[in-house]
Amino acid sequence: MTTLATAGSRSSLTAGKLPGWAPWSILALSFIVSFTVFGLLSLGGEVVDYNIAGALFCSMAIYVVLIVVISSISESRRVAMDRLMTALVSTAFVVALLPLISLLWTVVINGIQRFDAEFFSWTMRNVVGEGGGIVHAIWGTLLITLMATVISVPIGLMTSIYLVEYGRGKLARAITFFVDVMTGIPSIVAGLFIYSVFALIVGPGAAGGYMGALALSVLMIPVVVRGSEELLRIVPNELREAAYALGVPKWLTIMKVVLPTSIAGIMTSVMLAIARVIGETAPLLLTAGYTLSLNTNLFSGQMMTLPVFAYNQYMNQGTSPDAAVARAWGAALTLILIVMLLNLLARLIAKYFAPKVSKR
C-alpha cells in the first residue's frame, strides 16, 4: 500500500508536465518559422535586405504565444503563468541584444566584401577609384593605441592604488572628483586640448601620432582609474592583514598580494578603456591628422587610423562611391575584429597571471 501511494503521489506531481525538451523545441520552431518568413520576404523584393533584428523579435513573439498556449492546454494554470514570465524575461533579454546583433550583422554583411589580400596589404597611396587597402590605417591604430595604453595604464593604476591604499582627506576626494569629471569629457574636447597645447608649444598645424596618443590617454586614464579602484577595493582586507602580520611592508603587500588577486579585473578595466578610445574619430582628426601612405613613426608626420579612414572614405567618396563605401565598411569590421582579438589576449594574460588556486 505504501509503495502504491508513493507511486501515485509521484505520478500526480509529474502528470501534465511538458518534457524538458519541449520548450527548446518550441523555441527552435519559432526561430525556423520567423527566419524563413523574413527570408522569403527579403528575396521577394528588388533589394535583398534581411532584417535580422525583426526576425529575432518575431521569433520571440511567436515563442511566447506558443509556449503559453501549449502550457495552458497540457499543464496547470500556475505552470503556464511561470512559463509566460520566463518567456517574457527571455524576450526582454533578446530585445536588449537586438541593437548589438543588428549592428554586427550590418557591419559583417557590408564589410566582408572587401576582406581580401589587397585590402590588408595595400595603402591608399595613388589610388583614385577602386582598389586600395587599409594597412596604413591598421598600423596607425595599433601604434597610437599602444602608446596611449603605455601612458594611461601606469598613471591610472598608480592613481587607483593611491586612492585605495593611501589616499585620505581632501586630496583623495579632490582626485576622485576630477576623475569623475574627466570620465564625462567629450572626446572632441580632449582632442582640442592636446591640439591647443601643442599649438602653443610647436605652432599651429602640428599633428602626429604622439599627439593622438596623448589625446586618447586623456580619455583612457579616468576609465582605468575608476575600474581599477573598484576592483582593488573588493580585495579582502584579511589578505592585507595576513601579510602585515608576517612583517611584509605595505608596498610589497600591494605588489605581491593585492595586485595579483585583482589582476583579472584590472585587465578587464584596461580592455574597457582601450575599447572606449580605439574607435574615436574626432580627437584623432585634430591631432593625428590624415595621410594616404604608411607611416610607423609616431613622432614624425601624420598618421592614419581606422576610425578616421572609415570617416573619410564615407564622407569623401570620390569617383567610385561604391568602392569608397565598401572600404569604409571593411575598416569598421576590421576595427571590431581588432577589439575582439585584444579582448581575447587580455583574458589570456589575466588567466596566466592570476593566482593559482589549489584543488583538493
UniProtKB/TrEMBL annotation:
Tell me what topology the record assigns in the membrane: Multi-pass membrane protein
State where it is primarily located: membrane
Q: Which NCBIfam families match?
A: 3a0107s02c
Instruction: State which residue ranges cross the membrane.
Output: 21-44, 50-73, 85-113, 133-163, 175-201, 207-225, 257-278, 328-350
Organism from which the protein derives: Microbacterium koreense
Question: Does this entry carry the keyword S-adenosyl-L-methionine?
Answer: no
What keywords were assigned to this record? Cell membrane, Membrane, Phosphate transport, Transmembrane, Transmembrane helix, Transport
The job of this chain, per UniProt, is described as: Part of the binding-protein-dependent transport system for phosphate; probably responsible for the translocation of the substrate across the membrane.
Which InterPro entries does this entry report, sorted A to Z?
MetI-like, MetI-like_sf, Phosphate_PstA, Phosphate_transprt_permease
What is its subcellular localisation?
Cell membrane
Pfam families listed in its UniProt record: BPD_transp_1 (PF00528)
| Record family assignment | Belongs to the binding-protein-dependent transport system permease family. CysTW subfamily.
Keyword Transmembrane helix listed: yes
Protein name according to UniProt: Phosphate transport system permease protein PstA
- All copies of the ABC transmembrane type-1 domain together span 138-346
Q: Which domain of life is it from?
A: Bacteria
